[in-house]
Automatic annotation (TrEMBL):
This is SDR family NAD(P)-dependent oxidoreductase. It comes from the Bacteria.
Amino acid sequence: MTTFALVGAGPGLGLATARRFGTAGHAVALISRDARKLEELTAELARDGIRARGFAADVLDPASLTTALREASETLGPIEILQYSPVPRADFMKPVLDTSADDLEAPLSFSVKGPVTAVHAVLPGMRALGRGTLLFVNGGSAVRPHPDRAGTSIAFAAESAYARMLHDALAPENIHAAQLIIPGAIRPDAEHSSPEVLARRLYDLHTERDGFRHYAEPLPD
């Protein structure tokens, strides 16, 4: 059994994606800062017969994130799929003219240093398996910067560049990097952006391994 590791576990998209990969036969490693939330999510997955465990870590703390992913691999089995999709903080979204250099430190740590740390933690195991998938989930500002959300727009663009380079560099090793852009809000009643629909889409990105950037729905004009 290999493991699906979710960085940014939560009750919406995170839970739906964990359930989709879990029902496909993968163990599930849930990573979040909130230990109580992790207990609730693992209990819900266990009721579905999915082997899951939570590992508390903060993506702004590289050492804790590395430790969590290492423990997940040792406890559940080698990590074949990594999904990086923590929700950005509201204070990352200041208007561009109000955003200082200091204001960019946390968003860049969140969306660049966090993914780099996570990838370096799981890549040796994927190479040993001879396969792997790296999934990056971003909002529309990753491809269309928004002047009222400067920190996230800048950081998501940088994360996109990193993920694209991974896609090109790792393809010869049978490790697929892909990005899913979700332009709007994730809502249970959304045709293309409900948690369950997005979870199926992410699973398809893992299995079909077709191209780098994908959109949950078209960007609004």
